[in-house]
């Protein structure tokens, strides 16, 4: 890894597959990140799902967005290549993300939050209205949303089943059991292998446990007052999300004052934006540039 000073220009890279992993110091901890795309414009910060590290972003989504936007993916504190201890609340993760953004010298950003990253994005948008310009929420839901507190149990069950069957748990958690869903899931897993050098570390067990605790707390909180979030927000998901039930996506779109709902992707689940990456990238770019 290389350490980047504040306000340093992003490296010129044609794809996420070979984007260098860099670090920036955030209150004494090193946060790992990758950056690509144009050097100008409002940066798009990517907030990853439960247990996700830099190599869990679909390169088709990142490359598609980076064709026209400055895109930055990073590891949460204590996860992957980032040092420190992983927080066990969504609110603390949101504070870390804000500190990371400010350490890079940005005073305004857009956010793309997927699943747990969408929880984090909601907190940042509400608490830092001047920092956040626009938000894309995918496969996520509000605090107290139906079924969200079941995510830890579902994840553990799928992980154990995956270990017994030698199958990546993301196949069952992110995609439907139909022929099309299984085909899309296998294609996604192959894309995640495209980067063959300087890959990120998998999440550690203590960090995974901390994130599970944070998600359960989020799911059991009192419902959020989403009317306080005033930024334009694009909301997307598959129609058959078994992790964060798709009802939560519809609820977000109905309750956020300035939301746009992408019609739920057919025959798709939690990984709907990966399965339908071309359509998602096109819609997200149009929203961010409008």
Q: Secondary-structure element order, as H and E?
A: EEEEHEHEHEHHHHEHEHH
Mean pLDDT across the residues is 94
Oligomer: single chain
Number of helices: 10
Would you spell out the secondary-structure blueprint of this structure?
Elements: E1 2-3, E2 22-26, E3 29-36, E4 44-47, H1 59-66, E5 71-74, H2 90-103, E6 109-114, H3 116-127, E7 132-138, H4 151-165, H5 170-174, H6 179-191, H7 205-220, E8 233-236, H8 247-255, E9 259-261, H9 272-275, H10 277-289
Parallel strand pairs: 1-2, 4-5, 4-6, 6-7, 7-8, 8-9
Antiparallel strand pairs: 2-3, 3-5
What does this entry look like structurally?
Helix content is 38%, strand content 15%. With 290 residues, the protein is an alpha/beta fold. It has helices at 59-66, 90-103, 116-127, 151-165, 170-174, 179-191, 205-220, 247-255, 272-275, 277-289; strands spanning 2-3, 22-26, 29-36, 44-47, 71-74, 109-114, 132-138, 233-236, 259-261. The model is unreliable at 2-12 (pLDDT under 50). Helix 1 (59-66) runs parallel beside helix 10 (277-289) and helix 2 crosses helix 3. Strand 4 (44-47), helix 1 and strand 5 (71-74) form a beta-alpha-beta unit.
Summarize the structure.
The protein has 290 residues and is of the alpha/beta class. The protein contains ten helices and nine strands. The model is unreliable at 2-12 (pLDDT under 50).
């Amino acid at each position: 890894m290389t350490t980047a000073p504040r306000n340093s220009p992003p490296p010129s890279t044609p794809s996420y597959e070979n984007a260098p992993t860099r670090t920036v110091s955030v209150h004494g901890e090193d946060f790992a990140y990758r950056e690509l795309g144009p050097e100008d414009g409002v940066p798009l910060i990517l907030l990853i799902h439960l247990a996700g590290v830099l190599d869990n972003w679909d390169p088709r989504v990142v490359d598609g967005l980076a064709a026209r936007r400055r895109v930055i993916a990073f590891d949460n504190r204590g996860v992957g290549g980032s040092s420190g201890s992983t927080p066990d609340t969504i609110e603390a993760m949101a504070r870390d993300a804000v500190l990371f953004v400010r350490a890079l010298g940005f005073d305004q950003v857009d956010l793309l939050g997927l699943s747990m990253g969408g929880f984090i994005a909601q907190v940042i948008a509400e608490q830092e209205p001047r920092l956040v310009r626009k938000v894309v929420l995918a496969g996520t839901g509000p605090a107290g949303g139906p079924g969200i507190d079941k995510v830890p149990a579902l994840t553990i069950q799928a992980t154990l089943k995956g270990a017994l069957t030698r199958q990546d748990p993301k196949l069952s958690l992110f995609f439907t059991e139909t022929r099309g869903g299984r085909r899309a899931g296998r294609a996604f897993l192959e894309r995640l292998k495209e980067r063959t050098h300087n890959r990120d570390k998998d999440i550690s067990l203590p960090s995974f446990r901390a994130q599970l605790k944070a998600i359960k707390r989020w799911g059991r909180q009192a419902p959020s007052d989403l009317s306080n979030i005033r930024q334009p927000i694009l909301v997307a998901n598959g129609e058959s999300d078994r992790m964060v039930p798709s009802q939560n996506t519809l609820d977000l779109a109905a309750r956020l004052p300035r939301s746009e709902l992408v019609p739920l992707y057919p025959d798709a689940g939690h990984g709907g934006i990966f399965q339908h990456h071309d359509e998602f990238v096109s819609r997200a770019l149009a929203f961010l540039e409008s």
